[in-house]
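Predict fold of Aminotransferase; 470 aa.
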Amino acid sequence: MSPSRTDDSAPALSNAESAMQIKQENHLLHRSLIEHPVMVERAEGVELHLENGKTIIDACAGAAVAAVGHGRQEVHQAIISQLEKVSYVHTQSYTTSAAEELANFILEGSPYGLEKAFFVGSGSEAVESALKLARQYFYEKGESQRIQFISRRQSYHGNTFAAMSISGNVARKVPYQDTLFQHVSNVSPAYAYRYKGTEESEEQFTTRLLQELEDEFLNVGPENVIAFIAETVVGATAGCVTAPEGYFAGVRRLCNKYGILLILDEIMCGVGRTGSFFAFEQEKDVVPDMVTVAKGLGGGYAAISGVFVHKKVIDALRQGTNAYNHGHTYQAHPISCAAALAVQKIIRKQGLVAQCAAMGQVLEHLLRSELQNCPSVGHIRGRGLFWAVEFVRDRKTKETFDASVKFGLRVQQAAFERGVAVYPGAGTVDGVRGDHVLLAPPFIITEDQLGIICRVLREAIESQEKLHGL
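Predicted 3D structure, encoded as C-alpha coordinates:
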Protein backbone atom coordinates (compact mmCIF):
# COMPACT_ATOMS: atom_id res chain seq x y z
CA MET A 1 0.00 0.00 0.00
CA SER A 2 1.28 3.49 -0.84
CA PRO A 3 2.53 5.36 2.24
CA SER A 4 0.45 8.36 1.22
CA ARG A 5 -2.82 6.38 1.53
CA THR A 6 -4.72 5.40 4.64
CA ASP A 7 -6.54 2.16 5.40
CA ASP A 8 -10.19 2.98 6.15
CA SER A 9 -10.42 -0.09 8.34
CA ALA A 10 -7.56 1.02 10.61
CA PRO A 11 -8.49 2.49 13.99
CA ALA A 12 -8.33 6.27 14.26
CA LEU A 13 -5.21 7.66 15.89
CA SER A 14 -5.45 9.82 18.99
CA ASN A 15 -4.07 13.38 18.84
CA ALA A 16 -1.02 12.30 20.83
CA GLU A 17 -0.41 9.34 18.54
CA SER A 18 -0.79 11.54 15.45
CA ALA A 19 1.71 14.05 16.85
CA MET A 20 4.13 11.24 17.63
CA GLN A 21 3.78 9.85 14.12
CA ILE A 22 4.53 13.28 12.62
CA LYS A 23 7.67 13.57 14.74
CA GLN A 24 8.79 10.07 13.82
CA GLU A 25 8.25 10.50 10.08
CA ASN A 26 9.57 14.09 9.91
CA HIS A 27 9.33 14.41 6.13
CA LEU A 28 9.99 18.15 6.15
CA LEU A 29 13.54 18.97 5.05
CA HIS A 30 14.91 21.41 7.61
CA ARG A 31 18.13 23.41 7.35
CA SER A 32 19.87 20.82 9.49
CA LEU A 33 19.42 17.07 9.25
CA ILE A 34 20.56 16.73 12.86
CA GLU A 35 18.97 19.54 14.85
CA HIS A 36 15.20 19.87 14.74
CA PRO A 37 13.96 23.47 15.00
CA VAL A 38 11.79 24.54 17.93
CA MET A 39 8.04 24.27 17.38
CA VAL A 40 6.18 27.59 17.67
CA GLU A 41 2.51 27.19 18.54
CA ARG A 42 1.48 30.83 18.62
CA ALA A 43 2.98 34.28 18.07
CA GLU A 44 1.63 37.60 19.27
CA GLY A 45 3.16 41.07 19.42
CA VAL A 46 6.89 40.58 20.05
CA GLU A 47 6.49 37.16 21.65
CA LEU A 48 6.77 33.60 20.37
CA HIS A 49 4.92 30.94 22.38
CA LEU A 50 6.60 27.56 22.06
CA GLU A 51 5.21 24.04 22.14
CA ASN A 52 6.97 23.40 25.46
CA GLY A 53 5.14 26.30 27.12
CA LYS A 54 8.08 28.71 27.04
CA THR A 55 7.71 32.30 25.84
CA ILE A 56 10.45 33.99 23.80
CA ILE A 57 10.91 37.70 23.08
CA ASP A 58 11.56 37.89 19.34
CA ALA A 59 14.41 40.41 19.48
CA CYS A 60 15.38 39.81 15.84
CA ALA A 61 11.88 39.73 14.30
CA GLY A 62 12.77 36.37 12.76
CA ALA A 63 15.40 37.79 10.41
CA ALA A 64 14.42 41.48 10.61
CA VAL A 65 11.05 40.54 9.12
CA ALA A 66 8.20 40.99 11.64
CA ALA A 67 8.16 44.79 11.46
CA VAL A 68 4.69 45.34 12.96
CA GLY A 69 4.86 42.33 15.25
CA HIS A 70 3.04 39.03 15.17
CA GLY A 71 -0.69 38.35 15.13
CA ARG A 72 -2.02 41.69 13.82
CA GLN A 73 -5.72 41.20 13.22
CA GLU A 74 -5.85 43.99 10.63
CA VAL A 75 -3.46 42.03 8.43
CA HIS A 76 -5.31 38.77 8.99
CA GLN A 77 -8.55 40.43 7.93
CA ALA A 78 -6.96 41.94 4.82
CA ILE A 79 -5.78 38.47 3.78
CA ILE A 80 -9.21 36.95 4.38
CA SER A 81 -10.93 39.78 2.46
CA GLN A 82 -8.62 39.28 -0.49
CA LEU A 83 -9.18 35.51 -0.43
CA GLU A 84 -12.90 36.14 -0.67
CA LYS A 85 -12.38 38.27 -3.78
CA VAL A 86 -9.57 36.62 -5.75
CA SER A 87 -6.77 34.40 -4.52
CA TYR A 88 -4.68 34.18 -7.69
CA VAL A 89 -4.39 35.44 -11.25
CA HIS A 90 -1.57 35.19 -13.78
CA THR A 91 0.04 38.58 -14.40
CA GLN A 92 0.59 38.00 -18.11
CA SER A 93 -3.07 38.76 -18.64
CA TYR A 94 -4.47 40.09 -15.34
CA THR A 95 -3.86 42.40 -12.44
CA THR A 96 -5.57 42.97 -9.09
CA SER A 97 -6.43 46.00 -7.00
CA ALA A 98 -4.24 44.68 -4.18
CA ALA A 99 -1.11 44.77 -6.36
CA GLU A 100 -1.95 48.12 -7.93
CA GLU A 101 -2.75 49.73 -4.58
CA LEU A 102 0.42 48.45 -2.94
CA ALA A 103 2.60 49.91 -5.69
CA ASN A 104 0.71 53.21 -5.65
CA PHE A 105 0.78 53.42 -1.85
CA ILE A 106 4.57 53.09 -1.68
CA LEU A 107 5.53 55.01 -4.82
CA GLU A 108 2.95 57.80 -4.71
CA GLY A 109 4.58 60.84 -6.27
CA SER A 110 7.54 58.76 -7.54
CA PRO A 111 9.83 59.41 -4.54
CA TYR A 112 13.46 59.88 -5.58
CA GLY A 113 12.41 59.24 -9.17
CA LEU A 114 11.39 55.65 -8.36
CA GLU A 115 8.53 55.13 -10.77
CA LYS A 116 7.65 51.43 -10.95
CA ALA A 117 7.38 48.52 -8.51
CA PHE A 118 7.89 44.86 -9.38
CA PHE A 119 6.70 42.40 -6.72
CA VAL A 120 7.95 38.82 -6.35
CA GLY A 121 8.25 36.29 -3.55
CA SER A 122 11.65 36.56 -1.87
CA GLY A 123 14.69 38.76 -1.49
CA SER A 124 16.68 36.49 -3.76
CA GLU A 125 14.03 36.80 -6.47
CA ALA A 126 14.02 40.59 -6.10
CA VAL A 127 17.79 40.80 -6.55
CA GLU A 128 17.65 38.37 -9.47
CA SER A 129 14.96 40.53 -11.06
CA ALA A 130 17.02 43.68 -10.57
CA LEU A 131 20.08 42.09 -12.16
CA LYS A 132 18.08 40.99 -15.20
CA LEU A 133 16.41 44.38 -15.56
CA ALA A 134 19.81 46.07 -15.34
CA ARG A 135 21.11 43.86 -18.14
CA GLN A 136 18.01 44.51 -20.24
CA TYR A 137 18.44 48.27 -19.71
CA PHE A 138 21.76 48.18 -21.55
CA TYR A 139 20.51 45.68 -24.13
CA GLU A 140 17.71 48.10 -25.02
CA LYS A 141 20.29 50.90 -25.31
CA GLY A 142 22.43 48.87 -27.73
CA GLU A 143 25.23 48.23 -25.20
CA SER A 144 25.03 44.46 -25.13
CA GLN A 145 28.76 44.16 -24.39
CA ARG A 146 28.01 45.09 -20.78
CA ILE A 147 27.99 41.80 -18.86
CA GLN A 148 29.92 42.52 -15.64
CA PHE A 149 28.56 43.13 -12.14
CA ILE A 150 30.66 44.51 -9.31
CA SER A 151 29.82 43.98 -5.66
CA ARG A 152 31.57 44.03 -2.29
CA ARG A 153 33.18 41.31 -0.23
CA GLN A 154 31.34 40.43 3.00
CA SER A 155 27.98 41.11 1.38
CA TYR A 156 24.87 39.02 0.88
CA HIS A 157 22.35 39.36 -1.93
CA GLY A 158 20.51 36.04 -2.04
CA ASN A 159 20.51 32.28 -2.54
CA THR A 160 19.69 31.88 -6.23
CA PHE A 161 22.67 31.28 -8.51
CA ALA A 162 23.00 34.82 -9.87
CA ALA A 163 22.25 36.48 -6.53
CA MET A 164 24.73 34.18 -4.80
CA SER A 165 27.30 34.90 -7.51
CA ILE A 166 27.40 38.59 -6.61
CA SER A 167 27.32 37.86 -2.86
CA GLY A 168 30.41 37.85 -0.69
CA ASN A 169 29.14 35.35 1.88
CA VAL A 170 31.88 32.74 1.65
CA ALA A 171 30.27 29.88 3.58
CA ARG A 172 27.03 29.90 1.58
CA LYS A 173 28.92 29.71 -1.73
CA VAL A 174 31.33 26.84 -0.99
CA PRO A 175 29.43 23.90 -2.59
CA TYR A 176 28.49 25.96 -5.67
CA GLN A 177 31.65 27.94 -6.37
CA ASP A 178 32.50 26.36 -9.72
CA THR A 179 28.98 26.72 -11.06
CA LEU A 180 28.32 30.39 -10.27
CA PHE A 181 28.01 33.28 -12.73
CA GLN A 182 31.57 34.27 -13.66
CA HIS A 183 31.15 37.90 -14.76
CA VAL A 184 31.47 39.29 -11.24
CA SER A 185 34.27 41.04 -9.39
CA ASN A 186 34.46 42.34 -5.83
CA VAL A 187 35.86 45.33 -3.99
CA SER A 188 36.49 45.90 -0.28
CA PRO A 189 33.61 46.33 2.14
CA ALA A 190 32.96 49.77 3.62
CA TYR A 191 33.59 48.29 7.07
CA ALA A 192 35.62 50.77 9.11
CA TYR A 193 36.01 48.73 12.31
CA ARG A 194 37.97 46.06 10.44
CA TYR A 195 39.26 47.71 7.28
CA LYS A 196 40.12 51.33 8.11
CA GLY A 197 43.81 51.80 8.87
CA THR A 198 44.77 52.83 12.40
CA GLU A 199 46.31 56.06 11.13
CA GLU A 200 43.65 56.62 8.49
CA SER A 201 40.87 59.20 8.94
CA GLU A 202 37.28 58.41 7.94
CA GLU A 203 37.63 60.74 4.97
CA GLN A 204 40.84 59.01 3.87
CA PHE A 205 39.18 55.61 4.25
CA THR A 206 36.28 56.76 2.06
CA THR A 207 38.67 58.13 -0.54
CA ARG A 208 40.61 54.86 -0.61
CA LEU A 209 37.44 52.78 -1.04
CA LEU A 210 36.21 54.98 -3.87
CA GLN A 211 39.58 54.85 -5.61
CA GLU A 212 39.51 51.05 -5.37
CA LEU A 213 36.04 50.99 -6.95
CA GLU A 214 37.10 53.31 -9.78
CA ASP A 215 40.22 51.23 -10.35
CA GLU A 216 38.03 48.13 -10.66
CA PHE A 217 35.74 49.89 -13.14
CA LEU A 218 38.81 50.77 -15.21
CA ASN A 219 40.34 47.31 -14.85
CA VAL A 220 37.20 45.59 -16.15
CA GLY A 221 36.54 48.37 -18.64
CA PRO A 222 33.68 50.65 -17.58
CA GLU A 223 31.99 50.06 -20.93
CA ASN A 224 31.62 46.39 -19.88
CA VAL A 225 30.06 46.99 -16.45
CA ILE A 226 26.31 46.71 -15.94
CA ALA A 227 25.97 47.71 -12.30
CA PHE A 228 27.52 48.12 -8.90
CA ILE A 229 25.35 46.54 -6.18
CA ALA A 230 25.67 47.09 -2.44
CA GLU A 231 23.65 46.77 0.74
CA THR A 232 23.00 50.28 2.05
CA VAL A 233 23.49 48.90 5.56
CA VAL A 234 25.09 45.46 5.44
CA GLY A 235 22.83 42.75 6.84
CA ALA A 236 23.62 39.48 8.55
CA THR A 237 26.90 38.65 6.79
CA ALA A 238 28.94 41.33 8.56
CA GLY A 239 26.28 42.61 10.97
CA CYS A 240 24.69 46.05 10.49
CA VAL A 241 27.74 47.75 8.97
CA THR A 242 27.11 51.36 7.93
CA ALA A 243 29.34 53.02 5.35
CA PRO A 244 31.65 55.93 6.21
CA GLU A 245 30.37 59.42 5.49
CA GLY A 246 30.45 60.35 1.82
CA TYR A 247 30.91 56.79 0.59
CA PHE A 248 27.60 56.30 -1.22
CA ALA A 249 27.61 59.83 -2.62
CA GLY A 250 31.02 59.05 -4.10
CA VAL A 251 29.77 55.72 -5.47
CA ARG A 252 26.88 57.51 -7.15
CA ARG A 253 29.26 60.00 -8.78
CA LEU A 254 31.47 57.20 -10.09
CA CYS A 255 28.50 55.31 -11.52
CA ASN A 256 27.30 58.49 -13.22
CA LYS A 257 30.79 59.17 -14.59
CA TYR A 258 30.99 55.79 -16.32
CA GLY A 259 27.30 55.24 -17.13
CA ILE A 260 27.01 52.34 -14.69
CA LEU A 261 23.81 51.52 -12.83
CA LEU A 262 23.65 51.64 -9.01
CA ILE A 263 21.52 48.97 -7.33
CA LEU A 264 21.02 49.32 -3.59
CA ASP A 265 20.02 46.14 -1.78
CA GLU A 266 17.73 47.00 1.12
CA ILE A 267 16.21 43.54 1.53
CA MET A 268 17.07 43.57 5.23
CA CYS A 269 17.70 47.23 6.07
CA GLY A 270 14.87 48.89 4.14
CA VAL A 271 11.16 49.62 4.69
CA GLY A 272 11.79 51.61 7.88
CA ARG A 273 14.19 49.22 9.62
CA THR A 274 16.98 51.81 9.92
CA GLY A 275 14.70 54.70 10.89
CA SER A 276 13.79 55.96 7.40
CA PHE A 277 11.63 54.17 4.86
CA PHE A 278 14.55 53.76 2.49
CA ALA A 279 17.89 53.28 4.22
CA PHE A 280 19.57 55.38 1.49
CA GLU A 281 17.62 58.45 2.63
CA GLN A 282 20.14 58.84 5.45
CA GLU A 283 23.03 59.00 2.99
CA LYS A 284 23.63 62.35 1.31
CA ASP A 285 23.26 62.84 -2.43
CA VAL A 286 22.37 59.24 -3.22
CA VAL A 287 19.55 58.07 -5.48
CA PRO A 288 19.75 54.48 -6.75
CA ASP A 289 18.65 53.32 -10.17
CA MET A 290 16.98 50.37 -8.46
CA VAL A 291 16.40 49.41 -4.85
CA THR A 292 15.37 45.96 -3.63
CA VAL A 293 13.26 45.39 -0.52
CA ALA A 294 11.67 42.38 1.12
CA LYS A 295 11.59 41.47 4.79
CA GLY A 296 9.70 44.39 6.26
CA LEU A 297 7.52 44.79 3.18
CA GLY A 298 5.10 42.03 4.14
CA GLY A 299 6.18 41.83 7.77
CA GLY A 300 6.20 38.02 7.61
CA TYR A 301 2.48 37.73 6.91
CA ALA A 302 3.10 36.61 3.33
CA ALA A 303 6.05 35.92 1.07
CA ILE A 304 6.74 39.13 -0.84
CA SER A 305 9.62 41.27 -2.04
CA GLY A 306 9.98 44.13 -4.45
CA VAL A 307 12.17 46.06 -6.84
CA PHE A 308 11.56 49.80 -7.08
CA VAL A 309 12.82 51.12 -10.39
CA HIS A 310 13.93 54.63 -11.34
CA LYS A 311 12.32 56.45 -14.26
CA LYS A 312 15.66 56.41 -16.11
CA VAL A 313 15.55 52.62 -16.38
CA ILE A 314 11.86 52.49 -17.30
CA ASP A 315 12.38 55.13 -20.00
CA ALA A 316 14.96 52.89 -21.70
CA LEU A 317 12.32 50.15 -21.94
CA ARG A 318 9.77 52.65 -23.24
CA GLN A 319 12.16 53.67 -25.98
CA GLY A 320 12.85 50.04 -26.86
CA THR A 321 10.67 46.95 -26.56
CA ASN A 322 8.16 48.46 -24.10
CA ALA A 323 8.34 45.27 -22.06
CA TYR A 324 10.28 43.76 -19.19
CA ASN A 325 11.49 40.37 -20.42
CA HIS A 326 11.05 38.58 -17.09
CA GLY A 327 8.22 37.15 -14.99
CA HIS A 328 7.17 34.72 -12.27
CA THR A 329 4.06 32.60 -11.83
CA TYR A 330 3.46 34.10 -8.38
CA GLN A 331 4.54 37.62 -9.33
CA ALA A 332 2.43 40.32 -7.62
CA HIS A 333 0.45 37.60 -5.85
CA PRO A 334 -2.81 39.18 -4.64
CA ILE A 335 -2.73 37.60 -1.17
CA SER A 336 0.86 38.69 -0.61
CA CYS A 337 0.15 42.18 -1.91
CA ALA A 338 -2.96 42.52 0.27
CA ALA A 339 -0.97 41.47 3.32
CA ALA A 340 1.88 43.86 2.50
CA LEU A 341 -0.52 46.73 1.88
CA ALA A 342 -2.11 46.17 5.28
CA VAL A 343 1.34 46.09 6.92
CA GLN A 344 2.42 49.29 5.19
CA LYS A 345 -0.79 51.05 6.18
CA ILE A 346 -0.16 50.13 9.82
CA ILE A 347 3.41 51.42 9.58
CA ARG A 348 2.28 54.73 8.11
CA LYS A 349 -0.84 55.23 10.25
CA GLN A 350 0.99 54.52 13.50
CA GLY A 351 4.15 56.41 12.58
CA LEU A 352 6.26 53.30 13.09
CA VAL A 353 9.20 54.46 10.98
CA ALA A 354 9.70 57.46 13.27
CA GLN A 355 9.10 55.20 16.27
CA CYS A 356 11.75 52.83 14.93
CA ALA A 357 14.24 55.70 14.76
CA ALA A 358 13.41 56.83 18.31
CA MET A 359 13.49 53.36 19.83
CA GLY A 360 16.73 52.74 17.98
CA GLN A 361 18.34 55.48 20.05
CA VAL A 362 17.07 53.77 23.18
CA LEU A 363 18.43 50.43 22.01
CA GLU A 364 21.84 51.91 21.25
CA HIS A 365 22.06 53.50 24.71
CA LEU A 366 21.01 50.28 26.44
CA LEU A 367 23.46 48.16 24.46
CA ARG A 368 26.37 50.47 25.18
CA SER A 369 25.56 50.75 28.88
CA GLU A 370 24.80 47.06 29.47
CA LEU A 371 27.73 45.68 27.50
CA GLN A 372 30.43 48.21 28.38
CA ASN A 373 32.15 45.85 30.81
CA CYS A 374 31.98 42.75 28.60
CA PRO A 375 35.56 42.15 27.39
CA SER A 376 34.38 40.12 24.39
CA VAL A 377 32.34 43.00 22.95
CA GLY A 378 34.55 44.60 20.33
CA HIS A 379 32.10 46.78 18.42
CA ILE A 380 28.47 47.88 18.70
CA ARG A 381 27.02 49.32 15.50
CA GLY A 382 23.79 49.94 13.67
CA ARG A 383 20.99 52.34 12.87
CA GLY A 384 17.30 52.45 13.79
CA LEU A 385 16.21 49.08 15.16
CA PHE A 386 19.02 47.29 13.31
CA TRP A 387 22.03 46.68 15.57
CA ALA A 388 24.86 44.20 15.85
CA VAL A 389 27.42 43.29 18.48
CA GLU A 390 30.74 42.01 17.15
CA PHE A 391 32.77 39.76 19.44
CA VAL A 392 36.53 39.60 19.92
CA ARG A 393 38.89 37.61 22.12
CA ASP A 394 40.97 40.73 22.65
CA ARG A 395 39.52 44.24 22.41
CA LYS A 396 42.87 45.93 21.87
CA THR A 397 44.10 43.74 19.02
CA LYS A 398 40.60 42.85 17.72
CA GLU A 399 41.69 39.21 17.67
CA THR A 400 38.73 36.96 16.89
CA PHE A 401 37.71 33.75 18.60
CA ASP A 402 38.69 30.58 16.81
CA ALA A 403 35.93 29.63 14.39
CA SER A 404 35.54 26.25 16.13
CA VAL A 405 34.43 28.03 19.31
CA LYS A 406 31.28 29.36 17.57
CA PHE A 407 31.12 32.19 20.08
CA GLY A 408 28.27 34.10 18.46
CA LEU A 409 26.16 30.97 18.10
CA ARG A 410 26.79 30.08 21.75
CA VAL A 411 25.71 33.56 22.82
CA GLN A 412 22.53 33.19 20.75
CA GLN A 413 21.78 29.83 22.36
CA ALA A 414 22.44 31.18 25.86
CA ALA A 415 20.10 34.12 25.21
CA PHE A 416 17.42 31.80 23.86
CA GLU A 417 17.62 29.67 27.00
CA ARG A 418 16.95 32.87 28.95
CA GLY A 419 13.93 33.79 26.80
CA VAL A 420 15.29 36.12 24.11
CA ALA A 421 15.87 35.34 20.41
CA VAL A 422 18.77 37.11 18.67
CA TYR A 423 20.28 36.40 15.24
CA PRO A 424 23.82 34.91 15.18
CA GLY A 425 26.46 35.42 12.52
CA ALA A 426 29.86 33.88 11.85
CA GLY A 427 32.68 34.70 9.45
CA THR A 428 32.02 38.36 10.17
CA VAL A 429 35.47 39.65 9.23
CA ASP A 430 36.36 37.77 6.05
CA GLY A 431 33.98 34.84 5.70
CA VAL A 432 35.98 32.65 8.07
CA ARG A 433 36.97 34.70 11.12
CA GLY A 434 34.70 36.62 13.47
CA ASP A 435 31.35 36.42 15.25
CA HIS A 436 28.44 38.71 15.91
CA VAL A 437 24.80 38.70 16.93
CA LEU A 438 22.16 40.90 15.36
CA LEU A 439 19.18 42.59 17.03
CA ALA A 440 16.26 43.76 14.90
CA PRO A 441 13.08 43.70 17.03
CA PRO A 442 9.63 44.62 15.73
CA PHE A 443 8.99 48.35 15.44
CA ILE A 444 6.37 48.05 18.22
CA ILE A 445 8.97 47.06 20.83
CA THR A 446 8.74 48.95 24.12
CA GLU A 447 11.52 50.50 26.18
CA ASP A 448 10.90 47.98 28.97
CA GLN A 449 11.19 45.09 26.51
CA LEU A 450 14.41 46.54 25.11
CA GLY A 451 15.72 46.68 28.66
CA ILE A 452 15.00 42.97 29.13
CA ILE A 453 16.60 42.12 25.77
CA CYS A 454 19.83 43.96 26.56
CA ARG A 455 20.06 42.58 30.10
CA VAL A 456 19.55 39.02 28.87
CA LEU A 457 22.07 39.55 26.07
CA ARG A 458 24.64 40.72 28.65
CA GLU A 459 23.98 37.67 30.79
CA ALA A 460 24.34 35.40 27.77
CA ILE A 461 27.63 37.03 26.77
CA GLU A 462 28.96 36.85 30.31
CA SER A 463 28.13 33.15 30.49
CA GLN A 464 30.26 32.48 27.42
CA GLU A 465 33.06 34.78 28.52
CA LYS A 466 33.31 32.81 31.77
CA LEU A 467 33.66 29.57 29.81
CA HIS A 468 36.55 31.04 27.83
CA GLY A 469 38.39 32.64 30.72
CA LEU A 470 37.59 36.28 29.93
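The first strand starts at residue 40 and ends at 44.
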